[in-house]
Amino acid sequence: MKTILYIIQKEFKQIFRNKGMLPIIFVLPLLQLIILSNAATFEIKNIKFGYIDNDHTSTSRALIEKFNASTYFDVLTDFPSEELASSAMLNGNVDVILEIPQYFERNLQKEKYNHLGVTINAIDGAAAGVENVYVTQIVQNFNKHLKVDLLQPSDLQIQPINIDTIPLFWYNKTLNYKTYMVPGILVLLVTMITLFLSGMNIVREKEIGTLEQINVTPIKKSQFIIGKLFPFWVIGMSLLTVGLIIAKLIFNVPMVGSLPLMYFYTSIYILVVLGIGLFISNFTETQQQAMFIAWFFTVIFILMSGLFTPIESMPKWAQTITEFNPIKYFVQVMRMVMLKGSGLMDILPQLLKTLLYAFIMNGLAVWSYKKTN
Amino acid sequence: MSISVNHISKSYKKVKALQDISFEVKQNELFGLIGPDGAGKTTLFRILTTLLFPNEGTATVAGFDVVTDYKKIRNSVGYMPGKFSLYQDLTVEENLNFFATIFGTTIEENYDLIKDIYVQIEPFKNRRAGKLSGGMKQKLALCCALIHKPKVLFLDEPTTGVDPVSRKEFWDMLKRLQQKNITILVSTPYMDEAALCDRIALIQDGKILEIDTPEAIVKHFPKQIYNVRANNMYQLITSLNEYQHNHSVYPFGEFVHYTDSRTDFNPNDLKVYLESKNLFNIEIEKTKATIEDTFMELAK
Q1: Which residue, among A15, A216, A220, A373, would best test binding to B if mutated, counting the most B CBs under 10 Å from its CB?
Q2: Is the pTM of this model over 0.80?
Q3: Which of A19, A237, B88, B212 could form an S-S bond across to B216 if both were Cys, CB 3.0 to 4.6 Å?
Q4: Which parts pass through the membrane (chain A) (predicted)?
Q5: Centroid of chain to Cα A46
Q6: pLDDT in tens, B33-50
């Protein structure tokens, strides 16, 4: 026990003496949290919008005015011809083109029915989808008001019944993107920092040769590993604390669930990460190698965690792979507990899987750590 | 016997690092492993310090088998790897404390053993190890290897890259440690240090060439060596190499060590030959063989 305490003490001394490392551990992640949470959003604003008005009537102008009034669209140009509009799209000057046909107003009044041409730059498919929704919303809205304007008293009897949907967004009423992203990005930071630090730490001892010296001593494997990894567990937990404080103070993210539950889950989750880190460092010779391998896995884990893209939209095989992704469970748990107020029983499946993962990873890591070759 | 090695072999894939090595080191002996880089010295050290398993053969250190009793060996040996491997970001005192703690002891307990060495670095005890000079680092590493009062001390090239004064001091320290009941196995590529050992083993390409006291090894040298000097070193060596009766030609400081293949060698013949090669200021005199000469002869 005394040996473990001494190693922990030594490890902390080394961490705090490394002047370059301290800001990397504590300042950069928090900057990331603040910047990423503000930047990573699916809302698309300032869409470059162009139109071809072949009608030039008050109705067509009113429609364009609707787009102009929207905060999402920057109404750029009135293109005289379709050709010019296409070449502008090709040059990237415009993302969405609305084409209003000739006799738009007349046909609307006569036939109560008309078509609008919408062309969207779909290089970024996700963005194109969102833009389409915005356009549709504006046109629908316009349509509704138009009906009232065009309605004549005699039409009253045959007015169709409208079914309106009024969505209620539970757990995030205003669909505030930050509320959704902050817990996720916090997860990312805790994972990245603890994985990189623990992965590089033992390799560093290999690199500078101290590991060889340690291996000749009677110190036990378990003593050494616990002593080495415990400080990073503490760092992970303190990162979570600082991150939660920032989430509350700066982003005002609601914290519905219980904090102790979040900490309890995180304390187990970090064990998984440390196990992976140790496992990586057992199979690498230099910090560089360890860094690359850790980076490789974090990228896969993050992209398949449901943090940025929903897991439900992934193909079946990819969904199966995500079952082995610890970050996925952490993201789920954090969002569930923070935003929904889930209790222990709700997160039990994730908790058990994480616990199992922790046992397997640490078992593998300790097993593969050898003092003798 | 403090260390006994019986028919140890070790290979890394295709490279045979050690082939059938056997030797014994007596209690309180200062035993030197002398050989060039890549001879297998470090591999042997790693086997004896239980960091590596041999492919074949057995070895015991302080009476314990290196494979079955490795845990006991780790308690009773001190190892100083060739590369400085202490924590550069910890201070002198912290490093020493750290090693004392993981060996389950304290600095005070074995202070008398390291006292002679530690007093020299004590003024810098709050300095980080990385900021010490080369000689200081060696002293600190030696202190750390000694802090648990080992029975056997393994020093892998302890003086490589250390200045001549510190090297001499270091060997003086080893001599003193020997008197404190510690067996020392030291490896070095420097032949001049070999003479300071009680016994040495000459090792090359994973094989032991000879084991004996330094004096006996020198006596075994079969031929008379001549120091040859002339005005132009480069031309001298080329000319000697072209000389039909030469046995060996090695540059040795300001001289060339020359042996002749004939038994009735007359230095004047050589002088005449060298003068014919436009060399002047020629000196040829008898000299005693050194361990280096023996090594070169054996390694031929």
Answers
A1: A216
A2: no
A3: B212
A4: 21-40, 180-203, 229-250, 262-280, 292-311, 347-369
A5: 22
A6: 988 888 888 899 989 988
